[in-house]
Amino acid sequence: MKAISFENFSYAYPKSGVVLEKLCFEVEQGSFTAIVGPSGAGKTTLCLAAAGVVPHYFGGRTGGTVVVQGIQTMDSTMGELAKDVALVLEDYESQLVAMTVEDEVAFGLENAGVDRKLIPQMVRETLQLVGLSGREQCEVGGLSGGQKQRLALAGALVTKPDILILDEPASALDPAGTEELYSLLGKLNEQGMTILVVEHDIAQVLPYIDQLVLLMEGRIAVAGQPEAALRKMSEESLFQEVIPPLQELRFLLEKHGCRFGAWRCEADAVRELSAVLQEASEVSRSA
After folding, report:
1. What is the CATH number of the domain that holds 203?
2. How confident is the model at residue 267 (pLDDT cuts 50, 70, 90)?
3. CB atoms within 10 A of CB 44
4. Which of 117, 144, 182, 203 is 20–30 Å from 256 (CA)?
């Protein structure tokens, strides 16, 4: 069973033109998918559709279907979908509703009817997971932007969803915080959680994903394994600004006969480039 399946799905908000048009792609159970695309491409709407917020909350016009865990979102409710799917919006502050950090994370558990005796421990464990341990009694309004973003993530994770959807989850984080975030998401994915993330900095998420989707003007322009997707984007000059410089260097070198394995991080690139330079040096000396 697929975790998420867009089947010829189209959507338009009330009083707007078509935002998503005939989307067809799948998210495998236990996979890690990244969505990229220019501003206005429909990335946020795609996330809302996968969580059932579109069209249940916003209304609008739809065509085709979105199937989550084998259930068509149109045949379910947002509350029913929330048992399996957690969503962290780019506008994360709009999701924060409580006065204190502890109450914010406990909110989802209380709504789910979790035994109140279990809630404090679950809250502490989740706050430790996102790096907010010890801040249970802090006022939400006094947190920094990065801390609020971590808190929104904690609120999503505390119910232990099967699917986690995040829209620009590192927008308020510094580089170290971003690295910690994706390391955490990578570990959650290894434990079986399906993750769908919108991200503009592909270099940060590349070590963890197994599918990359390029959305342009509401349509799927490219979808597939990260290596193949980035190569196609480079060859066809599609949204090239998102391609990491190291990947562009690799594609350029390959046009001149070099062959490399997959570069998921800088360490991979440094290792293989060093080997190429060493081989070239040995050839030069022998000549």
Report:
1. 3.40.50.300
2. confident
3. 18
4. 203
Count: domains in the chain: 2
Radius of gyration of the chain (CA): 21
Q: Give the phi and the psi of residue 28 in degrees, each rounded to 5.
A: -70, 150
The C-alpha atoms of residue 189 and residue 177 are separated, in whole angstroms, by 18
| Cβ atoms within 10 Å, residue 130 | 22
Asked if 224 and 273 sit in the same domain, the reply is no
Amino acid at 249: L
Q: Which pLDDT score is estimated for 8?
A: 97
Give the whole-angstrom CA distance, residue 188 versus residue 63: 33
User: pLDDT tens for residues 188-227?
Assistant: 999 999 999 999 999 999 999 999 999 999 999 999 999 9
Q: Is the pTM of this model over 0.85?
A: yes
Instruction: For residue 287, count other CB atoms closer than 10 A to its CB.
Output: 5
Q: What is the dihedral of CA 237, 49, 86, 148, to 10 degrees?
A: 70
Question: Do 162 and 192 belong to one domain?
Answer: yes
